[in-house]
Structures are given as structure tokens and as C-alpha cells.
Amino acid sequence: MKIFLRANERIFINGAVLRVDRKVSLELMNDATFLLENHVLQQEDATTPLKQLYYVVQLMLMDPSVATDARVLFKDMVKGMLTNLENRELIEGVKAVDIEVSTGKNFQALKTLRGLFDIESEVLESPSVSAAKLAAYTQAHGTENGRQE
Predict the structure, then answer these.
(1) How many domains does the chain have?
(2) Are residues 8 and 78 in the same domain?
(3) Are residues 14 and 67 in the same domain?
(4) Which strand (E) or helix (H) includes residue 2?
(5) Same domain for 15 and 33?
(6) Which letter does DSSP use for residue 146 in this model?
(7) Phi, psi of 93 (to 5 degrees)
(8) Which of 12, 32, 111, 127 is the most buried if burial means most Cβ atoms within 10 Å?
């Protein structure tokens, strides 16, 4: 796999952080777990349940030493989401992410989650979402009105 990086861009490979000082191309010659800097979600930006789920999957990719604990947290979060979600697209998306993570396709799971962010935003901002439903959804995932506590 060939990866192109710009000057001062970072890439996370098998838990290591690499920064390049000039435009380069890297060719990964064997299986490696990597994440490009522009796909990294900072903890303070994980302000919705799906972004929090993204952050946990990201941890599995970036820090193999916490992958086992992160996987347990991931399973708990998925279970809670599937209990509280009502939007069919989000339910199907979370189920797909669960399968992707279970089969070791964490990078694909992140891509799937990024595709769900706009739908989640629409659902959370929808006037048809009652305050009680919003509270149940967000509190089950450690957020209040979409903001991390």
C-alpha cells in the first residue's frame, strides 16, 4: 500500500507516531495498522455517541496496548446504542461497524462511522426527537445534549 504525506503531516503506524519533514510517499510492504492524521479525532471532539464510538475504535488502531479494554468498552457502547437508537440508518450503520470491528476491519469501521456523523447530527437536532429520548440516548453514552460531560 502506498501512502502520500505532506510536509509536517503525521501518520500513526502500529502505535508509533511518525512525522515527516517534507512531502514523501511511503510504501507499506506488509500488514500494518495505520491511521492518517486527518482521520484522527481528538478526545475533546468526541462530543456525540457516534464520535465517542469512533474514538474508541481509533484507540484500538493507535494504541494496541489498550485494544483489549477498548474492545470491551466498544461492545458495551454498541449494545447501548442499539437499545436506544430509533433511526434505521444509524441502527444498520452501528451493526455494520460492530461486524467490521469483530472481523478486524477497524479502519473500515472508522470510515463507516464518519459516514454516519451527519445523520446522527440531523437526528440530534431534529425537533421530532423528544427531550426524553435525547436524554436517554446521550446519557447512555456519557453525553448531555451532544456535549461530553
Answers:
(1) 2
(2) no
(3) no
(4) strand 2-5
(5) yes
(6) T
(7) -65, -45
(8) 12
Task: Report the sign of the C-alpha dihedral through residues 1, 55, 120, 118, in that order.
Answer: negative
Q: What is the pTM of this model?
A: 0.78
Q: pLDDT tens across 61-98, in order?
A: 888 788 899 999 999 999 999 998 889 999 999 999 99
Shared-domain flag, residues 31 and 62: no
| H-run or E-run covering 81 | helix 67-84
Q: How many residues does the chain have?
A: 149
Distance from C-alpha of 124 to C-alpha of 105, rounded to nearest angstrom: 28
Beta strands in 14-146 (DSSP E): 16-19, 24-27, 34-36, 143-144
For 140, the domain range is 43-148
Cβ atoms of 19 and 25 within 8 Å: the answer is: no
Question: How far apart, in Å, are the Cα atoms of 117 and each of 5, 13, 93, 122?
Answer: 26, 25, 10, 9
Check whether residue 6 and residue 66 sit in a common domain: no
Whether 130 and 82 map to the same domain: the answer is yes
Whether 31 and 10 have beta carbons less than 8 Å apart is answered as: no
